[in-house]
Amino acid sequence: RLIAVKPGEVTITATYGEYVAVAKVVVTLSAEELANVEAAKKFDEAVDALLSEELEPSAHISKANELLSQLATLESQALILVEKAELLKASIVDATISALPQVIKYSDEKLVKAARDLYRTSDYDVRNLVTKLSVLEAKEAELAAALAQYEVDKADASEMDALILSLPTVPVYT
Asked: Is the distance from CB of 13 to CB of 95 less than 8 angstroms?
């Protein structure tokens, strides 16, 4: 069964732990596409009517052939809507990648991984339409460098703490 499709602005909110990414995508359907949606609804109604009618066999065949012709037209129109849906999904992935911080820090790990997960879990056809994959890969490289630097800084801090603790105590005279 057909699910209603309406044009307009769609806001998608993806959460990953305490992080939230928001992407706004504008869905537009041409007058022809809106007419196709209406035609698909009418086709559904015609099939239901055919199944419920008591007709002579020749009338059923004639009606069935007419409906098959309509079905072929609707299938080609449905493919156009599927392609549009795939473009919409790809634009959501692109918007999520674009929403990543300009400079990646080690604390942005969950955001970068969420963007990668969104890309990874998308259908093959949708992944082929994503235009910001190279940006995601660059952000992942930045994250790897930030995490490596964090580990170095953490080790240096531990070493500094050990040096401070090894200093002799100074007696306090009052």
From this structure: no
Q: How many CB atoms lie within 10 A of CB 4?
A: 6
Helices (H) and strands (E) in the chain, counts: 5, 2
Contact 23, 11 (CB under 8 A): yes
Residue 146: count of CB within 10 angstroms of its CB:
18
The C-alpha R_g of the chain, in whole angstroms, comes to 29
CA distances from 83 to 45, 88, 119, 129 (A): 25, 9, 17, 10
Instruction: Give this prediction's pTM.
Output: 0.56
Judge whether 115 and 96 are in contact, CB under 8 Å: yes
Q: Is 25 helix (H, G, I), strand (E, B) or coil?
A: strand
pLDDT tens, 128-163? Answer: 999 999 999 999 999 999 999 989 988 888 889 888
Among candidate residues 87, 99, 142, the one with its CA nearest the CA of residue 13: 99
